[in-house]
Write a structure and sequence with these properties.
single chain; 286 residues; alpha+beta; 10 helices
């Protein structure tokens, strides 16, 4: 439960600095995790990326000021962290669908996004089939794409990468490399720092990486393994969301900040649904 309290404190910091020097790094420090894991956790718990949340909150506050004061648009742009009126106008219209100038008119329809408050909510949701297991280090070989700190952008890149690998023959090649039983294909997010952040589609093997592929290792760890059955993209994302909002708060464990692992069947026929697993590294609460 401590992580939820820390997350709430980080949101308090963000709210106090919407019109100031807002630092994602400082928010992450308050939440006791890295900037990457803070943004990842936030997006699953809040249902919106951190950058989009901040944009919505800033534009909500800017709209209130436009209607109740005579502040100039350029001054509001600078106040809310935009280098130019053009960038501010673009952000404002993405939230309100009208220009800042039009927002001053009496009767204009605007969108107000309130501040998020985190609380554990007990619901009568579906059961989550899981088991906890300890696994030794695993050698992997795969293809990869770089990711960035913007979770919203990453959620666009990863599905597109899967489609590319499924269609160009690399998926079938990876299926052939999988030589550890049971034979499976893995989707792995590996964060080692802002300059070393990749998503891999990989096979478990200790063989050397062929040209155009990369070798890496999944570390020894304790994992919460969630069984999953359905459409891969949608259902896997839902497992991560339910892990943070339903399973973790009551489990007595905390998120270990290790690579997140998706496990799929070996099937060169380009599977889109079926049985899969999600492995999330955990450790006992300290």
């Amino acid at each position: 439960m401590e992580w939820l309290k820390n997350l709430s404190k980080a949101i308090e910091y963000i709210e106090k600095n919407l019109d100031g020097d807002l630092s994602y790094e400082e928010a992450a420090k308050i939440a006791c995790c890295s900037p990457f894991y803070f943004q990842r956790l936030f997006s699953y718990v809040a249902g919106v990326s951190l950058s989009e949340y901040v944009r919505r909150r800033r534009m909500t506050q800017a709209a209130f000021e436009l209607q109740r004061t005579d502040a100039k648009v350029i001054d509001l742009a600078l106040k809310y962290g935009y280098a130019s009126p053009t960038a501010f106008n673009r952000a404002f219209q993405s939230v309100h669908k009208i220009t800042p100038t039009a927002a001053r008119r009496m009767g204009s329809t605007l969108n107000a996004y309130p501040a998020i408050h985190f609380a554990v909510q007990v619901t009568g949701g579906d059961a989550m089939a899981y088991h906890i297991t300890e696994k030794g280090p695993m050698g992997m070989v795969g293809v990869r794409i770089p990711l960035c700190g913007d979770m919203e952008e990453n959620q666009r890149r990863i599905p597109a990468f899967w489609q590319e690998v499924l269609k160009d023959g690399r998926f079938a090649q990876l299926c052939g490399l999988a030589d550890q039983e049971p034979r499976r294909i893995f989707g792995v997010s590996v964060y080692e720092g802002p300059e070393s952040f990749f998503y891999y589609i990989a096979a478990a093997t200790d063989a050397p990486a062929p040209p155009g592929m990369y070798a890496f290792r999944i570390p020894e760890a304790v994992w919460a393994v969630f069984e999953n059955n359905g459409y891969f993209k949608e259902d896997v994302q839902r497992v991560f969301q339910r892990f943070f909002t339903e399973w973790l708060p009551f489990s007595g464990y905390e998120y270990a900040g290790l690579p997140d692992v998706e496990v799929y069947p070996v099937d060169p026929e380009i599977p889109v649904s079926g049985s899969s697993e999600v492995w999330i590294g955990i450790r006992k609460e300290r």
